[in-house]
Amino acid sequence: MKSVCIFAGSSLGEKESYRNIASKLGQELVKNNFSIVYGGGSVGLMGEIANAVLNSGGKVTGVITNRLKEVEVGHKNLTKLVVVKSMHERKAKMAELSDAIISLPGGVGTWEEFFEALAWNQLGIHSKPIILLNVDNYYEDLYKFAVKACSEGFIPQSTLDDFILTDSITRAIKEIINFTPQDNTQWFERLKN
Question: Which of 56, 81, 137, 179 could link 129 by a cystine bridge, Cβ 3.0 to 4.6 Å?
Answer without folding.
Answer: 179
